[in-house]
Amino acid sequence: MQPVVLFDLDGLLIDSEPIWDAAKREVFGPLGLHLTTEMQAATRGMRQRDMVAYWFDRATFQADPDDVEQQIVAAVCRRLREGVAVKPGAGHAVATCARASRAMAVVSSSPESVIRHALASTGLDRFFDAVFSAEDDEYGKPHPGAYLRAAAALGASPGECVVIEDSLNGVLAGVSAQMTVVAVPEAADRYDPRFAIANLVLDSLEHLDTSVLGAAVSRDAAVDPSLLCIGTDRARGRKWPEA
Questions:
Q1: In this structure, which of 15, 156, 169, 201 has its CB flanked by the most CB atoms within 10 Å?
Q2: Exposed, middle or buried: residue 98 (CB in 10 Å: 0-12, 13-18, 19+)?
Q3: Are 72 and 48 in contact (CB under 8 A)?
């Protein structure tokens, strides 16, 4: 079976998390909220609307939430125009999946304008059949709505889809959608045991190849425990053989 592959964007394909973090600090700082690295991590993978609501629920601001959200998105777009780096292995992973899948899409919490600008600026846009933003959905990730909507638009059942995510919220969304999920956590999150809910955990997109995709979608086959973490044996610090 050729799967439909659904990629997240920020922090997975492009190194945009520092851009989003800087934009949030720029906007929230003058309001009296100084976001630490740990505070930024708490909202990773959320839509900007949900992220703003999260902090408005926890602090008192003399500001309008919609205006704050728009300022953050504008600051991100300004930084993206200055350039954004792709994550290690992103080009390899996207090209590999393009050969092994029947359709590919980006499913992101970012506004569609940000998604399209980022893909065009990196040249990755040529690989994707569609983009889907959770911006206007009733709920964002970890709700599975955006992934289910993408699957329906591409004519696929959830069981035919492979989700590739870097954040826990995104992994939860893919699992809730009953799709096969490949997690590629950031280095700081690599040992978080909660990522074990994913079907596969990779240290880097550089490890994603057609054999890994095949293992991910072969749900009826016995699961090889070594496939639960490809790249590093987290318990012993030992390298697995390359897939």
A1: 201
A2: middle
A3: yes
Mean pLDDT, consecutive 10-residue stretches, the chain (243 aa), reads 93 93 96 95 88 95 95 91 91 95 95 90 94 92 96 96 95 96 92 94 92 62 36 30 29
To which residue do tokens 């973090």 refer?
A: 21
Strand order in the sheet with 130-133: 130-133, 103-108, 4-7, 161-165, 180-183, 200-201
Cis check for the bond before 142: say yes or no (omega within 30 of 0). Answer: yes
Active site positions, annotated: 8, 10
For residue 157, give the nearest of 102, 109, 212 by alpha carbon.
102
Predicted pLDDT at 20: 93
Nearest 5°: CA angle at 235, between 192 and 195? 25
Q: Which CATH superfamily is domain 4-15+86-228 in?
A: HAD superfamily/HAD-like (3.40.50.1000)
The structural domains of the chain, with segments of one domain joined by +, span 4-15+86-228, 17-81
Is 17-81 in CATH node 1.10.150?
yes
CA distance linking residue 208 with residue 226, whole number of Å: 15
